[in-house]
Amino acid sequence: MAADSERLERWDREHVWHAFTQMAEYEPLIVERAEGCTLIDIDGREYLDGVSSLWCNLHGHRHPRLDAALVDQMQRVAHVTSLGMSNPTTIRLARRLVEITPAGLEHVFFSSDGSSAVEVALKMAFQYWHQRDDPREKKTKYVAFGNAYHGDTLGSVSVGGVSRFHEMFGPLLFDVLRVATPDSYRLPAGSSPETACADYLRNLEAVLQEHAEHVAALVIEPLMQCAAGMVRHPAGFLAGVRALTRKYEVLLIADEVAMGFGRTGTMFACDQEAVAPDLICLGKGISGGYLPLAATLATTDIWNAFLGSYAESKTLFHGHTYGGNPLAAAVGLASLEVFEEDSVLDGLVPKIAQLRRALGRIAEHPHVGDVRQCGLIAGIELVQDRASKRPFPWEQQRGKQVCDFALTKGVWIRPLGSVVVIMPPLAISPEELDRVCQAVEAGIAHACP
User: Fold this and answer.
1) Is 2 a residue whose pLDDT tops 90?
2) Where would I find the beta strands (DSSP E) of 101-196?
């Protein structure tokens, strides 16, 4: 058994190119199986899944109803293309998504991952303005926020703003109108927590006033920019953005790939400020974390702009081989049934409060500059000096040091630079959540003595 583990680790180092991982420094961690919120490696060691297998697992691993849905669908058909063909399971999932997403989003385009869902939304927005009854062909630009992350395809990278990830690809990208990150912690000069929302909205309106004639859409991660370091937007900012995009006739694309499906305490982040976007991008938790699946939902106004005869060439010429795959759709339907039958959102209320209490304790550490929470999502920012908010040099990898220590306590988490992220499965028990928070707290004390 030991020899087999060593061989797998060697092959993992030599052959598998891991995402966002410096392979020269990679140390294999190979998960063989999982149960509930626990991952089990090839040597039998157990780790609590503190980041939901990269923010996508909702109901735990090996959930009996999700497993059964996959087995049942496999006995019917494993794959049906969405190019000019359909299947009952995918149709039913589309209907359920229309029923639970914000009002007006009635048409579903399936793809395979969140980056692609954003890419589809960008194309839809661009093509919409060219094909509607009164074309506005000057509308070819996008507004996006500083430090935004919308995926890793070229279109989604273009509207993204994390320079450390994507700066190298600048010559391949299209220009966007970039506005300041609506950060509630690191405020611009002259702003305060009380005025931040209005200040950020005033800045955005100035951009829209000048450029709206050329802007097709604004892209936003509602409430919190996750990959930016769990940056929390001021309360009311999302609703203000919706009002401004309507005022200046700009489409609003809500990227809920990370925030959707209960993470914030409501089914979608947009629900918290009663916002209905023109396009919404979904992924990650859409299949409960089981299979690749994503979706872009659009309003009927956008849908209608693509209707016409074949000769008019109004078709959305975009597609994915596995978009709307019936296996993924089956487990997605089962996940939504679990939400309803197990009252998952109601069950999150005490867990969110429990996490808030733990974060309050962690916030007292002298090198914790800020704790940010949105539902069952948390970011803990480590700083050299709390008063000045001076960060640690990124090369010191303080966040990684915390996560490495937590691993020795049987908790698996991943950092975003000097921000330690807690985003467990929604199904986590109170006892397991305590273990995650205690491991993080101990890790911070170890990494920032």
Assistant:
1) no
2) 105-111, 141-145, 177-179
